[in-house]
Known about the structure:
three-stranded antiparallel β-sheet, 2 helices, alpha+beta, globular
Amino acid sequence: MVKKPVVKTNATVEINCDTVREDNISRVEALYKKLKIFEKSPDFDQIFMYKAMNLSGIGLKEDDFGEVREGKYIQIIAITYEPDKNGKKKAKNISLGYFGKAETLDETLKNEIIEFVLRWRYEKAFQNVEHYKDLIARVDVTAETPDTLF
């Protein structure tokens, strides 16, 4: 696998967050269908109720990004929290997709799996921004405080 270097620019670009978000959700939904996530999670809108999403068998950290782990099985894992018998929240892993052994994984499929997880996380980031924007709007602020987060 050829690694693409991370390119960071200092250029200021005006971005319409609504368009970026809509485009992202459209792509997440296309990948949801293509990767057959609907078989484990039939309602597309409900996939954003999970607390987190991760990959088993493929690295997503800076130092191992995109590397398949030999001998491992490739899965998309959703994480949710459910109360145990004592009412304490406990993490629960749910497999949303199983794609076989790492050694047999097609490069295109691998990239689509990675893209799905990253775009899902991107949408969760948008949801978190909305949440904090709403909370900040509830704070009684002075006239000198800017009325925007940006």
